[in-house]
Structures are given as C-alpha cells and as structure tokens.
Amino acid sequence: MKICLVTGSSGLIGSEVSAYFHERGFIVHGVDNNQREIFFGPQGNTRWNEKRMQGALAHFTHHELDIRDRNGVLELIKALKPAVIIHTAAQPSHDLAAKIPFDDFDVNAVGTLNLLEAARRFCPESPFVHMSTNKVYGDRPNTIKLKELPKRWDYDDAEFAGGIPESFPIDQSKHSLFGASKVASDIMAQEYGRYFDMPTCCLRGGCLTGPNHSGVELHGFLSYLVKCNLEGREYKIYGYKGKQVRDNIHSADVAGFMFEFCQSPRSGEVYNLGGGKQNSCSILEAFEMAEACTGKKQISTYVDQARSGDHICYYSDLSKMQVHYPKWKLTRNLPQIFQEITESWHQRTAK
Ligand SMILES: NC(=O)c1ccc[n+]([C@@H]2O[C@H](COP(=O)([O-])OP(=O)(O)OC[C@H]3O[C@@H](n4cnc5c(N)ncnc54)[C@H](O)[C@@H]3O)[C@@H](O)[C@H]2O)c1
Hints:
It is a single chain. This protein has about 350 residues and is an alpha/beta fold. Helix content is about 40%, strand content about 15%. The strands form 4 sheets. It has a 7-stranded parallel β-sheet with strand order 3-2-1-4-5-8-12, sandwiched between helices. A 3-stranded mixed β-sheet has the order 9-11-13. The two termini are about 35 Å apart.
C-alpha cells in the first residue's frame, strides 16, 4: 500500500484529505501538534478530530511533530518516503498574523520549505500539494469595479464575470502578514516544481469549509457563523455593510481535487480552488441560509471598520482546474454545506 503524508491532519482540510486518501487505499501518516489551540485558544483545539480519525481510520498513524522542526521533518520523510505529500498545516488567520509575525512566518514559510526540501531529498517523484490561499492576491481584487446589490457586492467588469483567474497579479498590494508568509510558501512550492522539476502544485483557497472545522472568530467563516447562530451568540460584521462576498467550498471537494492532481500530477502548477460564483455568498446571505437551516435568528452587530486588507468581493474562476482535471467537480452546494456544519456542531456540543 502506498503512503500518503498529510500535514495539519487534525485540521479541517487535513482530516478530510486523510479520510479521502485512506478510503482509496492509502496508508495515511498525519502530522499535527494541535498548534491551532496555541494560535486560537481552547476553541481551536483539534484533539477531538485527531481522536476521531484514530478511531475511524485503520491505517492511520498520528505524528506529534511541529513542521518547524527541520530535523524531525527530514527524518520522518526519509523514513516514510511517502508516495504523496499533502501540506495543509498552517497559521491560517489573516488577523492573527500581525500579533505573532515570527510564528506565522516560521510555520507558513519556513515549515513549507522544510517539507519541500525533505521531499526533494527523499521522494522527489512524489506529488506535493501545497494548500495556499487567495490572500496571495492581497487586496488587489478590491480594485476591480464593483456593483452594489441589495445583499451583496458583485464584479461590475465582464473580465471577472467568472471570478478571479490564476493570472491575477500577486504583488504591489496589501496582503496582511499572513498573506505575505503564504506568498513566500506559494512561490517556494512553485519553484520546487519549476527549478527541480518536482510534481508540485499550489491551491489558492477561497473559503474552505465543512463539518470538521474548529471554527473560531478569527478563522473558519461559515463554521463560526453557524456556531454563533446555534448558541445565540452575537456575530460581528466588520465593514462593507455585511455585503462582502466569499466563495465556499466543502472540504471533501478540496480533497477530491487533490486526489485528481496526485493521479495525474503536473509541475509547479497553481489553481484557484473555491466554490466559484455558484457557491458564493455575502455575510447577509449567509445569515439567511443559517437561519433557514437552524430555524434560529442570527444575532449580529456591525463594526464600521473593515478588516485590514480584507476582500470586498472574491470568488474563484474554476475553469483552469476544470480544463486540467475534467473529472473533478463540486459535489456540495451551499444549503448542503450549511446542513452538514449544523449537524456537526449539534453532535459536538451534545458530547
Ligand atoms: N479554511 C479556509 O477558509 C482556508 C482558506 C484558504 C486557505 N486555507 C489554507 O488551507 C490550509 C488548511 O486550512 P484549515 O482550514 O484546514 O486550517 P486548520 O487550522 O483547521 O488546520 C491546520 C492544522 O495544522 C496544524 N498545525 C498548525 N501549525 C502546525 C505546525 N507548526 N506543525 C504541525 N501542525 C500544525 C493545526 O493544529 C491544525 O490542526 C492552510 O494552509 C490554510 O492557510 C484555508
């Protein structure tokens, strides 16, 4: 059986990918040190998910390793020589990065370099998927002409009617320190593809979501929003009248794309991976969908100050992914995503 190494395996994407590859016959080795709890406090704890996977997946081994531990990473990859590496461990919050710039850069940029270099030394033929972010585009998407609709912003420029393509410029705009550390890792993953001809790709995620997110205010938009709704807790809207738009993709569809890439890898590729226009919503629209799902009124307050560098309207153009990997498609729409997240919070809070 082939080995799949997943970093960030107790997180939203890492856990989904572990299950997805396991179901398709891989032995899965997961790397996670519950750093999410250190970043976000007890609400960010991912141990529940680690335990869930150890119970559910017969061929899953957990490694309590920090990806900043260079020798630890080199030794693990030397010992396992995985057939596939999926890198999802990260400091994932835009806002938190400014408070912890060294940790943010060391995890996101240096941690990724540790993994890429270990892969080059011990398994250079193995597909390496790096989970990047749409924040690599900085706030430049905000320069696209927009139109204001009753409940959302939308592009008012035919060039972007299908969303933001991979050719969109990434520099000379405000990224947040998080966006900057992710740019460093994104370029490095591309470079290991181009310079060393390794089968790497960067997936520039929109809003990645799903039932297994440990959503907190600073990260995990829909998961946190539904949690607030269920608990009758206030959700704070930061700026843009609550009409800011995000495209949401279920973690299973993220894992599905990663699997397709690993079946037929290319080198140094970049894809915008989100829910596209069809799975996009504003915060106001998300409130309505949560209310329809839970039957509870969403409580919110408005802060008339947008988060620094935040996108007003962002949805991904999925056409490059669909041309390169025609078997891949979105399998969950927004109502299904809300339903799954709601059920998961019910189950977790019932324990
Ligand atoms: N969720 C989103 O909306 C979103 C959007 C765009 C991009 N992304 C990217 O996708 C990836 C996965 O995001 P997610 O939502 O699953 O995040 P997550 O926080 O749920 O999962 C990340 C996991 O990595 C672990 N981790 C963090 N630092 C580590 C370290 N130094 N060593 C070992 N493990 C460590 C955490 O404990 C956590 O379990 C990240 O690269 C993130 O930047 C996420």
